[in-house]
Design goal:
It contains 17 helices and 13 strands. It is α/β, with parallel strands linked by helices and 557 residues long.
């Protein structure tokens, strides 16, 4: 049966040359996710969209644990957001804040900034769970990082592990440069994976088994390593991280075979004892992406696999991220499971033309779907569609309307302003790097002093081998805005008065209590694109991406 599969793969490779990726399905999926909310969207059915938007926003603002407000290019959340959403929420805020802050250099004040990108005014609920469940209300729009099935409500946005977009841009370039000299024919021929397996042995079958699919897929891959070491190299990074469920019959639909039992009995044999860093994945011809260990959802492992010049093998799974609709089986990746993984490896070994086409397709995903510019553009489109569908611009874009809206007693009551503890997420970008764990601070009133961000500072060439995201250029902090809604209301009033005095009144920066000067009562100055070449309007240099990608393409042989 394996020989016909090899012939079929070769015929497909000869018959179908590499084609540009069709991004239309991504936006079809986006429109469909928004359309889900149409029956309960009062703005769409109203003749007075502005009035309907005001009424709807009263109910949508403010969920303290997951609401994000982008106003005049500033990122504002309640302090509870930082506690409720944990590491993923902070990573998402880092992503946002570093979109709107450009490079400053070590000697510049953190409060003195230049705009990196102008984001539209919008408000949304953010859900950090890998399955997409857990949004406050399925009748209201909610941005999710992934879904465990396509039918689940939620608007898909990039997962938070892409991190700071400037860091991601640099990291993709590094992956390509490291992978380019590694000729495909000289790479290891096994399907490669490294990670961890966890269990829910302490829970009942009814509770544990629905969450086991990802761990079971990982265990199957390790079992194949024992059965077919010539074709599969899937291992845990450490024995302590290799903890599959001990009872093979606990979940009837996920039984163990003799090789799975061997993994359970001797996890040390399937553990390397060391971490394999992302650039070293390009030592392998075939890289395997397995479902996440938590509920079998998406895995952040896939983020970097598209840029290393290898064939991407995606384990069969219903989980979906925002760019998956543009992926095409046999062009960008191959879909595998325990029944055909070895077969696919052997078939591709016999069909170098198909391997070449798949590597080209994967490279296109890296350049056209998950590049820093691509991710930023997509997220901006999501915000634009969100604000248009619920007419958020009717309230948020006009400072006089926003001021009056916030002053209304019914708004004060609906937003529960007296309980809010708002913070602005600020960011400073530096040429040097430091540990991500040291780069996020809650320094209260001292947020504006960069010297409080203690290193250890390192230059890129001094950074030890670490997984992506362990070190970053961006320093992120939560600047207190005081209790209640007062800071936003004062800003709206300031902007409204400025407009009445004949000034442009265009979005600039939160003045007065939110001003760059920490309180100077003056109209904000608009950033002039191109006024300073060192601080470009957008921080990503597309030419760098194209050059690095071209180097990779030259070595796709």
């Amino acid at each position: 049966m394996r020989a016909p599969l090899a012939v079929a793969l070769l015929l497909v490779a000869r018959a179908r040359p590499a084609a540009a990726l069709d991004k239309t399905p991504i936006f079809d999926e986006l429109n469909a996710s928004f359309a889900y909310y149409d029956p309960t969207n009062p703005v769409l059915a109203s003749a007075d969209r502005a009035a309907a938007a005001r009424s709807w926003l009263r109910g949508y603002l403010w969920n303290r644990s997951n609401t994000v407000l982008i106003l005049d290019n500033r990122v504002i959340v309640d302090g509870e957001f930082l506690r409720s959403t944990g590491d993923k929420g902070r990573r998402h805020l880092r992503f946002l804040s570093t979109l709107v802050y450009s490079s400053l250099g070590a000697s510049r004040k953190a409060t003195r900034r230049r705009v990196a990108r102008r984001l539209p005014n919008a408000v949304y609920h953010f859900n950090q769970l890998s399955t997409g469940e857990g949004c406050p209300d399925d009748r209201e729009p909610c941005l999710v990082i992934a879904k465990d099935r396509r039918s689940r409500p939620g608007v898909l946005v990039p997962n938070p592990y892409f991190g700071d977009m400037r860091d991601w841009h640099d990291f993709q370039s590094k992956l390509r440069k490291v992978g380019a000299p590694r000729k495909f024919v000289m790479r290891e021929r096994q399907a490669f994976w490294r990670g961890a397996i966890m269990n829910y042995d302490s829970e009942s079958p009814a509770d544990a088994c629905p969450k086991e699919s990802g761990n079971y897929a990982r265990l199957q891959a390790l079992a194949l390593t024992l059965a077919h070491p010539e074709a599969v190299n899937a291992r845990c990074v450490f024995a302590e991280a290799c903890r599959p469920r001990k009872n093979g019959s606990k979940c009837g639909s996920m039984p163990y075979d003799m090789y799975a039992d061997k993994v359970v009995r001797d996890p040390v044999a399937l553990s390397t004892g060391e971490f394999v860093y992302e650039p070293d994945y390009s030592r392998h011809k075939y890289v395997l992406n397995l479902p996440g260990s938590t509920f079998g959802g998406y895995s952040r492992n896939l983020n970097h696999l598209w840029a290393i010049g290898s064939v991407v093998m995606q384990w069969r799974n219903e989980a979906i991220e925002w760019y998956y609709p543009a992926l095409e089986e046999g062009q960008t990746h191959v879909t595998v499971d325990a029944s055909n993984l070895v077969e696919h490896v052997e078939a591709l070994e016999a069909a170098p033309a198909k391997s070449f086409a798949l590597r080209q397709g994967a490279s296109e995903v890296g350049k056209e779907l998950v590049c820093a510019q691509c991710i930023t553009d997509y997220f901006t489109k999501v915000l634009g569609a969100l604000r248009e569908r619920w007419a958020m611009h009717e309230v948020l874009d006009d400072p006089c309307v926003l001021r009056n809206f916030l002053r209304e007693p019914e708004t004060q009551e609906a937003l529960n302003c007296s309980q809010l503890n708002l913070v602005e997420i600020v960011s400073r970008y530096d040429d040097k790097l430091q540990s991500r764990s040291h780069s996020w601070h809650h320094s209260g009133a001292n947020w504006q002093h960069p010297n409080l961000h203690r290193g250890p500072w390192l230059h890129p060439e001094d950074i030890p081998a670490k997984p992506y995201g362990a070190y970053t250029h961006s320093l992120v902090d939560a600047r207190p805005l005081g209790p209640g809604c007062a800071a936003i209301a004062r800003h709206a009033n300031h902007m409204c008065v400025s407009r009445g005095a004949g000034e442009a009144g265009a979005p600039g920066g939160l003045a007065a209590v939110l001003s760059d000067d920490g309180g100077a009562d003056e109209a904000p100055k608009r950033h002039r694109p191109g006024a300073n070449a060192k601080h470009a309007v957008h921080p990503f240099d597309a030419a760098d991406v194209d050059d690095a990608a071209a180097q990779t393409d030259e070595h796709l042989n």
